[in-house]
Every structure is written in structure tokens, then in C-alpha cells.
Automatic annotation (TrEMBL):
Protein name: Clavaminate synthase-like protein
Cofactor: Fe(2+)
Ranges for domain TauD/TfdA-like: 18-378
Highest rank taxon of the organism: Eukaryota
Family from the record: Belongs to the TfdA dioxygenase family.
Amino acid sequence: MATLSVQALPLPPSANPAFFSSFGREVKDVDLDVASDDQLEQIQKLLYEHSCLLFKNQKVSPESQYKLTKIFDPESDRYGHGNNKTGGEKKSILHPDLKTIPRQPQVQVIGNGTVYDHEGLPEARLKHPHHKTFHKTAVSPEDEEAGVTRFYRWHIDAALYDLSPPKVTTLYALQVPKGEQQTLRYDDGTGDELKVPLGTTAFVSGHNMFEVLSEEEKSLAVRLGVEYAPHPYVWMSSAHALPTGLGLESEGLELDLNDLPPWSQDKIKIFPALWKNPVTSNLHLQIHPSAIRALHIAPLPSTAKRTPESLFPDGATITSLPEVRSVVYRLQRQGIRPELVYTQDWEDGDMVLFHNRGVLHSVVGAFTEDQVRVFHQCNLAGTSDPEGPSEEDIKKWA
Ligand SMILES: [Fe+2]
């Protein structure tokens, strides 16, 4: 069998190559629309090793994209948020962002502007989400005019209630409007900023996010369980995000649990904060910061050394949202600093596969109504929940 050739992805100048030695590869000489079983098998392994794969100049039908997505979890067949619904309810914050392709409902059309007669959709009005609709504050109109933008929302593609997180997301760019680079500001008092291509998708490695933590933070992460809200995208529908897009402000705006669509305790998801990579065995810090509702921290094992710096050495259950969010923010914020961010400079025909259980990603930028952007996105709810740290990992890191 012929081994697929790969090369490193071009990094943005802001990225520190030391963090990207294994992250991201362009895979050459594959036609994804007719890829062989052998090629698909190699792609699977490459994805777990490199987190993010780019294929240039592709022409991929929704059927082929579905097939490509499905190889990672052959028994799965439902869209990551369930088929023909987006987070379950009209009130969900995901609702306006997604349009389903009728004959292949696991594949969504996303983008900006209006497209006509597209894959069985007579008319689809697409809206690239803008941070001003989600963040508590927004960049001023003058700054926006000058090309300033933000991360919209750092996330994992996952329902986080009832369904298990998809293993992979495939993102296919059919039409990409070109425009000036933008300046992405974090606006959190650090002065951090990034130069980004218009409408980029930003990625960070969950493995890097874990690696950059202090010893005490790693010990906390390996003992941490994260509980998500029922119907999280409805629950958070009135809340506002932080200027980094990395979680929510605590203003008491989340819906009361009694006002949510019907839910049951057995469908609530409590995941380990660290997810184990099935090929490399690396640990990836994978938390969807906007959807978290409680933390469950195990005590330090008796073999671990306790110091005054140990975090929650006796374990804890935290249900106060401001505290839940500040603990998670502390663990995640370092992992999105500019040198750790990969920004995809999209071109027509680009297909990106990303390891949804190994990276966090965010929409970036803003388009005008006449800038038409068309992408196909597919992910499938997992058939099982992610695996957490092993006994050995806990012994090593706690
Ligand atoms: Fe996403």
C-alpha cells in the first residue's frame, strides 16, 4: 500500500513552532471524493497523531463527506447535535448557524450571505456569527472598521447532553471570500493580539493546553470531572461570553433548569477534563467552557505529595458558577495565548479534518452581507464517551 505523503502546515508568524512539531499536516495526493479504504485508514491514524489535517483542491459531495466522517466511528449516524435539529430547540444558540442538506442530514451548510439552489436547498440564508451577538462587550464600530475582531466562541463540537461528543469534524470550504487580514484582540487586559486571515477558524491543541500548565494545575486537571448543563445551548441562550470567547460571564442569565425543555438526570454528561488520545495516549484538556455547570474534583491520592500550592488537595464539588468558571478559565486561558494558536487561511476547495476530542476551535471575524461564504460541515455523535486518564496517568500527574 502506498503511504500518503504529508507536510507540515504553514504556521502563522505568531505561532511558536516548538508547540507545533506534531500538530497539523497537509495530506497530499488524495482525492477525498474517491478515497480508498486503505487511504481512509491512514487518514484516521494521521488525524489522531496530528489533530488537524488539511487537504487542498478537493471536490467532495455531501455523501463522500459523510462517509469520510463516519470512518472514525462506523456505527454512528446522527449529526453531533442530533439530526434535523440544532441543540434540540429553537431557543438554542446554535439554531441560526446551521442549515441541513436534505438528502444527507448529517451535513450542514454554514457560512455567510444567501445561496440559492444549493444541494437541494432552494434558498439558504447563512450568517457568520459575530461576537457582538454573544460577547458581553464588543469592539467599537471604529475599531471594527479598522479590522479589529475577536474569537467568537472556543468550543468542542458536541451536544454535551444525552449524545456523546463526535470524534472528528470535517469542514469543507466551497466558497471563500477574500479580504484584508484582521487584528484579533483578546481584550482581557493582557494586551494579547493576533493577525488573522479574514474569517479564519482558530485551533488550539488540547494536548498543548495541558502541557503548558504548572505541576499543581496538571494535578488538578487529572483529578477533575466536568459536569455540563442539561440542554446547554438553550440553558446559556441569554448569557454573554467573555471577550476571549473562552467561557461565559457570570451575570445570572442562564435559564432556570425548570424552564428548559424536558430533561432527565441520566442524560446529564459528566466528563473527565482530560481525554486520552486513542493513538498517541496523550492527554488533551478538553472542556467546553460555555456549557459547564459544576466541577467534581477527586482528592489527591495518598501517594501524591501535598504542598501548600496543591489545588483542592481534599477534593471538592463546586456548583457556584463564578467559581466553576474561574477554575476552568485558569486551566484553559494559557492554552489560547497567541503562540499556541493555529489559524487556517481558507481557500476554495480546502477540506480540514480536526480531532474534535483533541482540539478546541473558534469561529473568527466578521463578513458583510454581500460576502458569500459557503462551507459544508459534518460531525457525528460518538457511539461512546471519551476515555479519561488511566490509573497510571493519575499516578503520574496527580
Ligand atoms: Fe464548531
